[in-house]
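Anyone up for a design puzzle?
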């Protein structure tokens, strides 16, 4: 089953939610993911997309949206997880948003993002989290990989800021994926409240941050490790009630 299309400002682009694990659009979107990100091995592998769609539970539902032409050519899409049990209001974690190089500059990414935000609002959740590399913490090899892919971390962060995302001012890193299997520390955590098309809030609750990450990490770290990592982040944040939001073009103040 495929849910009805929504139409973007560009009448040649339609966005739909994929619900059939065997939909050929998943493979097409997977190829875009591989081609449009400099380190695709750090992302959810395309062969896992079908399993994501089959694995909904009370605490987590993974969704995939694709943008298509009327003929069904996939131009881009996004993968995100609805986490309704994550503390005050619940939240969403967006794993990836990408557009094929040939379709860039047509507003496809913005259209997909807006549709994802509509999902957040319809589910009654507080907002959307994501993470993104900060270029000044990349290695020379990573910068070279960006150049080969035709991408740039500064431009990417500007685009995310334009969508409405803001940097959460907290020492954030992924628990695994870095050197020797340790933490990956070239990322910042980003957030956009669901109540506004452009981020209107100046803070986000630490409880919401830790609850969302605990729920998101649980699937690949296990319950105990996810709990420990969420507690560690709260400790690094000083157990404050609210965390400031900075422009998405900036990194968290911890790194300055």
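Challenge accepted. My sequence:
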């Amino acid at each position: 089953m495929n849910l009805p299309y929504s139409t973007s400002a560009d009448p040649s682009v339609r966005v739909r939610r994929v619900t059939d694990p065997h939909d050929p659009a998943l493979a097409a979107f997977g190829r875009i993911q591989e081609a449009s990100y400099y380190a695709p091995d750090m992302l959810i592998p395309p062969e896992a997309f079908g399993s994501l769609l089959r694995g909904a539970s009370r605490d987590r539902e993974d969704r995939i949206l694709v943008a298509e032409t009327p003929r069904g050519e996939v131009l881009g899409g996004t993968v995100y997880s609805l986490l309704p049990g994550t503390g005050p209001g619940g939240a969403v974690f967006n794993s990836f948003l990408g557009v094929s190089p040939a379709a860039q500059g047509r507003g496809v990414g913005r259209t997909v993002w807006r549709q994802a935000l509509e999902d957040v609002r319809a589910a009654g959740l507080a907002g959307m989290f994501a993470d993104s590399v900060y270029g000044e913490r990349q290695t020379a090899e990573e910068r070279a990989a960006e150049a080969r892919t035709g991408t740039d971390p500064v431009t990417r962060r500007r685009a995310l800021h334009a969508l409405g995302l803001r940097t959460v001012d907290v020492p954030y890193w992924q628990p695994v994926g870095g050197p020797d299997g340790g933490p990956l520390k070239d990322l910042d955590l980003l957030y956009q409240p669901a109540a506004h098309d452009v981020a209107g809030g100046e803070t986000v609750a630490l409880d919401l941050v830790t609850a969302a990450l605990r729920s998101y990490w649980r699937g690949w770290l296990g319950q105990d490790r996810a709990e420990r990592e969420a507690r560690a982040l709260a400790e690094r944040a000083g157990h404050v009630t609210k965390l400031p939001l900075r422009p998405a073009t900036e990194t968290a103040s911890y790194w300055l």
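A detail worth pointing out: The CA atoms of residues 155 and 249 lie 9 Å apart.
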